[in-house]
Every structure is written in C-alpha cells, then in structure tokens.
Design goal:
This protein has 579 residues and is of the alpha/beta class. 36% of the residues lie in helices and 18% in strands. The protein has 18 helices and 21 strands. The strands form six sheets. Strands 1, 2, 5, 6, 7, 8 and 17 form a seven-stranded mixed β-sheet that branches.
C-alpha cells in the first residue's frame, strides 16, 4: 500500500511548493500528477508575471520598484479589481507572503527581469517577470533535491474518506491501467483550472476540472464559480494557433502596441462603446466582454470574432517592438511560446487584419476554503487556481502566480500542522473504495457514443450558452443540456479494450469531470442576476450591490447542486453600498 504523510494532487506551481514546504516541516509528502513534473499543467505555460508590491520589490528584492507602493495598496487594488468579492483574509496572506517566496526562487537560481511591469488595474509597477518553464525548472530541481516521491502518469479521480475525514486518493495509473489507492493523513488538491470546458483555451489539454469534480463528489463547497476569466485577443485560426495569446501580448497588454479592433462594419467599438479614453487597453474582464458582446449582437467576423489591426502604425515602430518590449516570452525574431509569427507580422504591416476572439484563461472561483486553504472536510486542502476566494469577480494580471505560490506554501504549512494530530495512516471504507473503482472502470462496460464527439458537444454548449455573454435563457439552456449529457454519459465508453496507455479511457473520465464543472458554473451564473467583473449578464447589465454584494456558494447535496449565498469577508475595505 502506497502511503505518505500528505498527498498532493498536482505537481506544478502550487503542488511543488506545497511539497517543498512539507519537507521543511519535516514531513513526507507524495506528489500525484497526471503528467510529468515540469511538463504539464498551466504554470509551465505562464508568461509569467508574479505580483509583489513595488516597495518590497525595491527594498527587499533589490529590483527597480516604486517606493510609493505598499502591501496595503496592492491589497486594495486586488479587492477593488475583484469587485469587492475577494475574501480579504485570504488577500492579506496573498500580499504578505509572496515576497519571501519570490526571494526563495531567486536564491534557488530563478532568472528574472529587473524592471517591473504595470498592467491595467495596478496602481504601480508590480510584475516580477520570468518564464513559466524557468519557474518549473527551479521547482522541479528543488523537489528532486528534497527527494519528494512523485507518482507521474497518475490520474487522481476520487478523494477517499473514512468517518468523514480524508484518508487518501484513488485513481488510475495511466501506464499500466491499474486502479490504485494511495493513503495519507491529509490531501492537498492543486490541480489548476478547468479551461478545457471551452473550445478555445489558453491552457494545456489536461486542465479538465478533475480536481473540481473529485472535490464535488467529496462534498466540498465552491465559491464564485460563475467568475471564469477569458483572455481577449487570442487566435481563432488556424487550429494549431487557437487560444494562443500572441495578439494580446502584442497589444493591448501593458507595454504593448496601440492596436485597434473593429467590428464587421469597421467601427472601433471599444472607443465608441466600452472606454473612450483607454479604448482597447482595458482590464481583461472588459476586454473579453467588449469583444464577445460585439459577436453576440451580430457585429462580428464570419468566424465569430472581431478584426484586429496594426496597419495604422509605422513599420519601424512595429519592427522595433520585440526589442522595446524586452520580455523573455518574445524573441527579437517574433518567436512567441515556441511559434514563429514573423510571416504574420509582415502581412499585418501590409494591411492584413486578423480575426481574434476570446479563450478561457483562468478560474477566479473554485473550491471554498478558509484563509489557510482548508476546506470544510477535515484533512482536505485546496491551493492555486482550483481554489476560490482570492480573486473575487476579476483577476488582476500577475495575480495568478502570486495566488498559486502563496497557497502552495500555505496549504503545505497548514496541512503539516493538521497531520501532527493524526497518529496513523488509515485505509478508506470498503464501500467508498468500491464506488470509486466501479466509476473508474465503468467505461469498459459501455459503448455507443464517441467520446471525442461528446466532448465537442459539451464544449459547444459551454461556448454558446455560458461563455462571456450570458442571459437567463442561455444559462437555462446550458443547464438543460448538461442534464442531457449526464443521462447520456452511461452510453459513452471505450472501443479500445486495452487498459494500459488507453487515451480513450482517460477522455471518458475527463468528460465526466467537464460535465460536473459545467453544472457548477452554470448554476452559480444563473443565481447571480447582475453583471460583476468576469460575469456579464446581458439581461442584467448593471452591478447590483444592494442584492448581490455576496459570494455565491454551490455544493453537491445528495446528488443535486444546491445554491446559497455567503456574506463577503471584510477586514479593512468596506464595499460601497451602491454601484
């Protein structure tokens, strides 16, 4: 029987830091990961900015910070740009803990840029810039130095409990095809978001909401699940480029070019309808909303996007941009995230416009925890993007990695404290193990619906009915379709009977996760009858603080998703009574 003091589901930013912290506390963690450490998940694909207040950057980290900034101002920006929904106790940890973590990274040899960035929504420069693969190079090396056991190619499917508390994890060995139980005194879920619910995504293929689904089955609560952040200005075509954020980083990202976007009639709709001063250079919630509302109103391109142009700029200015930008993610010869865009830039300089839309980018909501990453189930913790509470209704650029790193360390620290009171590792109840095993093995007894086509239908429903622009009607349709998918799931099976390295089997288990995730989001979005941050209700276009200055809570109660509300957690910033 495989055992450890603490089991960590997820090997990247949050999971790796949790393991490192547990080793610091003298405990024996084990990492369980669906891929290979440093080669999967979202962290390795990050741009990557890490928010630290500018004063601390200068005085503690030795970077080019602005001493007018402070932790208090960073806290304020995060709460206000989260439209007052963030749990302020969690945000206090967010701004206080990150400097020491970045210092650790620097001591471990992580390469960073000395100059800070200042994206939209930030009062001062804060972005400590590096690259995702550089982050994971350092973390992977540290995890291996500390001899943390890593179970790679393991798909966790269920959290196992005994007498109401967590005792382990069940899942699938993707190489052998064996159902495996792993036991520990506590479990940390650090599986990231579920961006693959949507057909266009900036995230890797493996981010299918497995952590959300297993937590839902275990009985946790979720907070602010309606707040899915979409990245505006991503490619739609060709398929190999879909979801790549090069157009966003070219501009309107901070430090980017003064690009322009047009609807099908050539109107510069951001200037006319969204923000006549900042135009396309707005926060991500407004950027995504502006693009997709134009599409929703029938003013988009033939493929369902908008037009994006830089033809108005002098060629010399465009040619010099990679040098002027001076960021690790973009080379001087226009290579971005491994793709060369030099030919495309030449065409755009000649007057060619490209079509851009949005892609799912970050989950602001997630598993509900307290300020030290503990869920309502004893022994179960959540860290990083899978956890809600930090970002509220909208995430500032650069806050993702700050959240991931801080909660990775906090979850490890507090899980260590918890397990000190647990004398031994115990096995789960036999009935619980059988239930998990039967569900994982069920696809081999089913046949009929092709899983790839089924996944496309799930994604189409999410895109059509619960994307950026939402209404009562669209969300009701989304939930009706989700119920249909749940009924059809028993007909989705494996045509391949081999259990080892069976990707079709994995796909079936992942679409089950996507269905659960979709139900959580749609239910929460239907309950919030206002527009706030990343949540845009076309039928309720204004914010309604009188009735909705609260967190929407959803949870699985005996097989049904129940909705409730909770007062926002305030420590120092009282939200306005009216919008």
């Amino acid at each position: 029987m495989l055992t450890a003091d603490v089991l960590i589901i997820g090997s990247e930013g949050a999971g790796a830091l949790a393991a490192i912290e547990l080793r610091r506390q003298g405990l024996n963690p084990m990492i369980l990961t669906k891929g290979r450490i440093g080669k999967c998940g979202a962290t390795v694909t990050a741009g990557a900015d890490i928010n630290v207040d500018s004063r601390t950057c200068k005085e503690f980290l030795g970077l080019n910070g602005d001493i007018r900034d402070s932790k208090e101002k960073f806290f304020e920006d995060t709460v206000i740009e989260g439209r007052y929904l963030p749990n302020q106790k969690i945000v206090e940890h967010h701004v206080e803990e990150i400097p020491a973590i970045v210092k650790d990274f620097m001591d471990w040899g992580m390469k960073i840029e000395k100059d800070l960035g200042q994206p939209a929504g930030h009062s001062y420069p804060r972005g400590v810039t590096t690259k995702g693969d550089e982050i994971m190079r350092v973390l992977s090396q540290k995890v291996k130095e500390l001899k943390v056991p890593i179970y790679e190619q393991f798909m966790a499917t269920d959290v196992l409990k005994k007498d109401g508390r967590v005792v382990g994890v069940a899942g699938l060995d993707l190489c052998s095809g064996e159902f495996v139980e792993v036991y520990g005194k506590a479990v940390i879920i650090a599986t990231g978001g579920g961006m693959q619910l949507y057909p266009y995504s900036t995230a890797p293929d493996e981010l299918t909401g497995d952590g959300h689904a297993m937590a839902m089955r275990a009985g946790v609560e979720f907070i602010d699940m309606e707040m899915v952040q979409f990245m505006g200005c991503t490619f739609m075509n060709p398929p190999a480029w879909a979801g790549i954020s090069f157009p966003y980083c070219l501009g309107p990202d901070f430090g980017g070019l003064d690009i322009r976007m047009y609807n099908k009639f050539g109107h510069r709709f951001f200037e006319e309808k969204i923000d006549p001063v900042n135009k396309e250079h707005v926060t991500r919630d407004l950027l995504a909303r502006g693009i997709m509302n134009e599409v929703f109103e029938g003013m988009g391109t033939p493929n369902g996007g908008v037009y994006y142009s830089l033809h108005h700029l002098p060629e010399e200015l465009v040619d010099n941009f990679p040098i002027a930008r001076n960021q690790p993610i973009l080379s001087k010869d226009w290579v971005f995230m491994g793709f060369s865009f030099k030919e495309l830039i030449e065409r755009m300089k000649q007057g060619h416009a490209i079509e851009v839309a949005v892609a799912s980018h970050f989950f602001c909501g997630g598993i509900r925890t307290d300020d030290i990453c503990a869920t309502r189930i004893p022994g179960l913790y959540a860290a990083g993007e899978v956890a809600g509470g930090t970002e509220g209704a909208n995430r500032l650029s650069g806050n993702a990695l700050t959240q991931v790193f801080v909660q990775g360390v906090l979850s490890g620290r507090n899980a260590a404290e918890y397990v000190k009171g647990i004398p031994t590792v115990e096995a789960a109840d036999v009935a619980e193990i059988k239930k998990a095993r039967d569900r994982v093995m069920a696809p081999f007894g089913r046949a009929g619906i092709n899983v790839i086509e089924f996944k496309k239908e799930i994604q189409k429903n999410a895109w059509d009915n619960m994307c950026v622009v939402r209404t009562e009607d669209s969300l009701t349709k989304a939930l009706a379709k989700i119920q249909e998918f749940k009924k059809l799931l028993p007909e989705v099976g494996c045509s391949c009977t081999a259990k080892s390295a069976n990707r079709e089997w994995v796909d079936v288990l992942q679409v089950e996760s996507l269905i659960s995730l979709a139900e959580l989001i749609a239910t929460s979005a239907l309950a919030r009858k206002e527009t706030r941050g990343a949540h845009f209700r076309k039928d309720f276009p204004e914010s309604d603080s009188k009735n909705y200055m609260k967190n929407i809570i959803v949870a699985n109660e005996n097989g049904e998703i129940k909705v409730s509300a909770a007062p926002i957690v305030v420590t120092s910033i009282t939200p306005p009574e009216e919008d």
